[in-house]
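I am writing to request your help with a piece of structural work I have in hand. A protein sequence and the structure tokens that stand for its backbone fold form the material at issue. Please examine both parts with care and let me know of anything in them that strikes you as inconsistent. The record follows directly beneath this note.
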Amino acid sequence: MRTALVAYALASRSGRRFVMRVEDIDRVREGAAERQLADLAALGLTWQEPVLYQSKRTDAHAAALATLADAGRTYECYCSRRDIAAAPSAPHRPPGAYPGTCRNLDEATRAVERKRLAAAGRRPSIRLRAEVTHWTVNELLDGVAPEAPPDARREVCGSVDDLVLRRGDGVLAYNLVSVLDDAHQGVDQVCRGVDLLSSSPRQAYLAHLLGLPEVTYAHVPLVVNPSGVRLAKRDGAVTLEELRSCGWTGADVVRWCAQSLGLPAVTTAEDFVAECSPARLRSAGGPHIFAPPR
């Protein structure tokens, strides 16, 4: 809810449209999307209609994957997560980066690996054959000096590996579908948690390969639990419905979100927009601890 408020404020202050997308191509819990949209509306957020449901664009997503494959930019991967974790990584790559195990296998080896996975009821994933190791993106918030102009940005250069485009279960990966749908919706500013900053160069590189427009990123400090771990449902009352059951109102949520970012204690989305300048956000620091009521 807090990141949505910030995204709404940044869009409103810069004269952008604020668009909504329901990312429902994987593990959808019935009614979850409707509840989340209702929660955001209850906080005073409005968006351009219609809401885009990602599952309605699967043909476009598959066509983009086929385009990359036809250009020789993909390959099958037979590794499990355990395989990747156990594989040695190059010294210049960050932890968790794919080491390229399956990148240059010959066709005979690929046939053996396909048969091995099939016997276990699995299928290969599809990875991007990246031609760079790093890519640079424009960042609006993280690391930009508070006194900089509102539209000031810094360049963030991050690692790029052979990211997954289609998982072994056949579901197309977030990295692919999100950049496709951003372009489809005309998104040119992506606001999200700072934990995804390291993913932005990979996604921007993928967008470049697909001929999609460049976007600017705004990464917001995280909300964490008292142990310093990213806030999750297991921490207690974190949804608007749960907070209401503990006596909170929508105004209380907006107030907490504002104060956690160093803004005045406003209680409406309109006042949040008025106070939520890039300069103030750059001074917010973070992460910010929230102890959910129980």
